[in-house]
């Protein structure tokens, strides 16, 4: 009972190694060349062709498992590339949206500071401030720089 998994594994290994097997080639009564994995039942002359593993680009023999692994790796790489491109597109779209919002805000600030004059301004923290002409001009210059940076 304890050896049953081992026996099954060995049997599968033996079957798998013999399935690389042979290909039979013969000419039928109509003169057509036939290739088959099973030996013909009639008494025709049969040529046995040994199946050989394919070679990789490096000249090494490649098993079906290796080819499957290589195909899986290539598929995974293509999937990662697609996901990376999708993420990059999302990032660029988000960046463009933020840039557009910043442009809108900078234009609003410029308009506000240009028309402000000598008014008192309430800040987001709830404090009030009256800007001097120097401070107002500085804020206008700052808003113009932001417009040139964010607006295209």
TrEMBL record:
Residue ranges, annotated region (Disordered): 48-90, 127-152
Feature: compositional bias, Basic and acidic residues: 57-82, 127-142
Residues making up the signal peptide according to the UniProt record: none
DUF4124 domain span: 11-61
One family name in Pfam for this protein: DUF4124
Protein name: DUF4124 domain-containing protein
Organism: Solemya velesiana gill symbiont
